[in-house]
Design brief:
- By secondary structure, the protein is α+β, with helices and mostly antiparallel strands.
- Among the domains are: about 1-165, no CATH class; about 290-420 and about 425-435, no CATH class; about 585-730, no CATH class.
- It is built from 14 helices and 42 strands.
- Helix 3 packs antiparallel against helix 4 (about 130-135) and helix 10 runs antiparallel to helix 11 (about 605-610).
- The chain starts with a helix and ends with a helix.
């Protein structure tokens, strides 16, 4: 009996084992439990429907559960169908014997589905903020995924879910009309955590790669951490510029080729605002083209033709909690000639600290005011260290230019937002110019005042710029109130002429020269004095006295061969109108093109030959004129000499029009006239034909390059001409 029982038990045991093995390895295919499984899947979710085909049941003896799997199921969401690869689940054995049928988990594997449909399905199970955001910004795209859900006893999804898959060809419409296109990546989603890998996309047509992006939900915020890369590319800048809403184009950036590697992290709060943005970028800038006229730049780089380029720049960019820094180095140049540059910019509090160094070797550099030009085969280093503040003030702690023994050093130069000078502590110049004259000059601040001292200084180019400048009334200073003491051993007026012991002071009040007294001597001990005084009526009175006028007139190219004489200039300026008198006595000139033409047209060839030969001597020259803005009105120009006398009036509109008229008379006629005043009637009429002709009247008019000159014989002199001649003769 015992043997029979053992045999029966053994058969049952073997049979049970075989059944377990069979159900564990082969399983059972049936539709018997489809309705039960469907009800469990749809529990608390009445908006969806599931259509299952045959369900495979396989026993899992180790955890006392049954693995359920069905292939090609279909999910319907508001009549929209989602086709899946399979649905799988584990059902505890004990639940088969209870009224409440329990499913522990669900595993889904999808085919490629529309992302918007998947989001709709997901929101039915869990309508979270992140799904709401995705639903708003995603316009199209597809997804394939493997989804693992675990359920609690109430049929709700636990927080240990895992979703893995691939997103393909997705388009997102972000804020401010920015677009993400052709978005492809591999993803893994867990509770409050998203991991994205191998991201490839285009942001406003700019290709972007990301090896990994992590998104975590912390409280009500989303923390995003990403590694982004951009491939080396010659960007179509019209499309790339969309990112910056045209700002780069407006700033003159035309095109660029670059690649970059970027670490980006930030928070997005529930109101979609970005917080705590951090960025670290390594940028390989192959080229960038900047197009701008930059008139001031052309003064110093004469080969510049409105196009500036950066080439092969390595840039490290960092941004962290409103702290911003850039470190870069590479090449800068124009016309395909490049020099080395390195630069650092650091944002700290409400200011940007910058440092730049440029080694100019191949390009030319000019400093017009100092008549300086960099040598072709030398290297000139420019260093700028300073601070740019949010109120648009700029403080240059140091500016230096160095080429061999040539040096310009500036310390603590402060500019306001209008780029006017508010303060400067030091300018130190030791520089050989093109005339091989070494400029040695130093300006130092002494509390509120300044001191200028030095051995040599060349000022011809400064004088030329003053003569050609239409904006002399515009100061480069910000409300300058100071006293400048000057003591310079030698001032060069041109390459050959200089004055010694140039000394005195200039008093500035409210950005204008209030008073000045400067004295010096020429090498032959002749004097040169300059004074400026402002009276109680706010009239500015300027005087210049020179016992050697030639160097002061050398910048006027229409006069050549000026010799000897004494110059005396007096001017009164009120309400931006200057009334001036210029007197020169006992001088000789050798060439004046306009005068030579007048003499030739007046058939005074002998005097014309004298002008271009030995020169014409004048006893006195007096010019009375009024100036305002660009208009100079000549009230009277009178010159008398042994050979010829001239009286003239008119106006000169700078860079536009010249209009002059006057009288030109040979001196012999004047002498004969003055000597015969008692018989003036006979002389004026003349006893013979042509005998009474005194000289010629003339007119000069037109642009300075196309002057037209006309002359007419005159038989009588104007009373004004005779009066002025008598005054001069009587004075002499």
């Amino acid at each position: 009996m015992i043997k029979l029982l053992v045999k029966i038990f053994s058969i049952l045991l073997v049979t049970a084992i075989l059944i377990i093995i069979y159900f564990s390895l082969v399983g059972l295919k049936t539709e018997k439990f489809n309705e039960v499984i469907t009800k469990q899947l749809l529990k608390n979710n009445s908006n969806i429907d599931v259509k299952l085909k045959d369900v495979n049941f396989m026993l899992s003896p180790l955890d006392l559960s049954i693995n359920v799997k069905t292939y090609a199921p279909e999910i319907f969401i508001d009549k929209n169908k989602l086709s899946l690869e399979y649905i799988a689940s584990n059902i505890p054995l004990k639940s088969f014997f209870k009224e409440n049928f329990i499913i522990d988990d669900i595993k889904l594997s999808t085919k490629f589905l529309k992302i918007r449909d998947v989001i709709t399905l997901s929101r039915i199970y869990r309508n979270s903020t992140e799904l709401l955001i995705l639903n708003k910004i995603i316009k199209e795209g597809s997804i394939i995924a493997d989804i693992n859900f675990n359920f609690d006893e109430n049929g709700k999804i636990k927080n240990d879910y895992v979703i893995k898959g691939i997103v393909k060809d997705t388009q997102l419409k972000l804020l401010n009309n920015n677009e993400i296109e052709k978005l492809n990546f591999i993803f893994e989603v867990k509770y409050n955590q998203f991991n994205l890998r191998d991201i490839r996309t285009k942001f406003n047509q700019v290709p972007i790669l990301s090896s990994i992006t992590e998104i975590q939900k912390k409280d009500k915020n989303f923390y995003i951490n990403s590694k982004l890369e951009t491939n080396k590319k010659d960007f179509n800048f019209n499309e790339f510029n969309k990112i910056f809403k045209g700002e780069l184009k407006n700033q003159g950036i035309e095109n660029m080729i670059f690649s970059s590697s970027n670490d980006v992290s930030f928070f997005i709060n529930e109101k979609f605002k970005i917080k705590d943005f951090r960025l670290k970028s390594n940028i390989d800038l192959k080229s960038l083209t900047y197009i701008n006229e930059l008139k001031n730049f052309k003064k110093y780089f004469k080969d510049y033709k409105n196009t500036l380029k950066l080439k092969n720049n390595k840039i490290l960019l960092s941004y962290n909690k409103n702290k911003f820094s850039i470190n870069g180095n590479g090449l800068i140049g124009y016309e395909d000639i490049y020099d080395n540059i390195d630069y650092q910019i650091k944002q700290q509090d409400n200011q940007h600290i910058f440092s730049t160094n440029i080694d100019i070797k191949k390009n030319l550099l000019l400093i017009p005011l100092l008549n300086f030009e960099k040598k072709k085969n030398s290297t000139l280093s420019i260093n700028l260290d300073g601070v740019y503040k949010d109120n648009q003030e700029i403080l240059f702690n140091k500016i230096s230019l160095k080429e061999n023994n040539n040096l310009i050093l500036v310390k603590n130069l402060k500019l306001n937002k209008k780029l006017e000078i508010s303060k400067i502590d030091l300018i130190d110049i030791n520089l050989a110019n093109k005339e091989k004259i070494i400029n040695q000059l130093k300006l130092q601040r002494q509390k509120k005042n300044y001191k200028i001292s030095g051995k040599n200084f060349y000022i011809k180019d400064i004088i030329d710029q003053i003569n050609n400048n239409d904006n002399l009334s515009k100061s480069i200073f910000d409300n300058l109130n100071t006293i400048i003491d000057i003591n310079i051993s030698k001032i060069y007026l041109d390459p050959k002429n200089f004055v010694n012991n140039f000394s005195g002071n200039i008093i500035y009040k409210k950005n204008k020269i209030y008073k000045s007294d400067l004295v010096s001597t020429f090498p032959n001990n002749k004097k040169l004095n300059l004074t400026i005084n402002t009276n109680e009526n706010n009239e500015k009175i300027t005087t210049i006295y020179s016992e050697n006028p030639k160097p002061l007139l050398s910048s006027y190219k229409f006069i050549k061969g000026f010799e000897e004489g004494i110059l005396d200039f007096y001017s009164v300026k009120r309400n931006n109108v200057s009334e001036s008198v210029l007197k020169i006595s006992d001088f000789k000139i050798q060439e004046v093109p306009v005068l030579a033409k007048l003499l030739t047209l007046a058939s005074l060839q002998g005097i014309a030959d004298l002008l271009t030969g030995e020169g014409i001597r004048f006893d006195d020259f007096e010019l009375k004129f009024t100036s305002k803005d660009k208009l100079m009105r000549i009230d009277e120009l009178y010159a008398i000499g042994p050979a010829i006398s001239i009286m003239m009036e008119g106006y000169i509109e700078k860079n536009n029009l010249i209009s002059l008229k006057g009288t030109l008379v040979p001196a012999t006629t004047i002498n004969r006239t003055i000597a015969s005043i008692p018989l003036l009637g006979n002389i004026l009429v003349g006893k013979k034909v042509g005998e009474g002709v005194f000289g010629v009247s003339f007119k000069i008019k037109g642009p300075k390059d196309k002057l037209k000159t006309t002359v007419n014989p005159i038989k009588t002199l104007t009373p004004r001409f005779i009066t002025r001649t008598l005054e001069k003769l009587k004075k002499n």
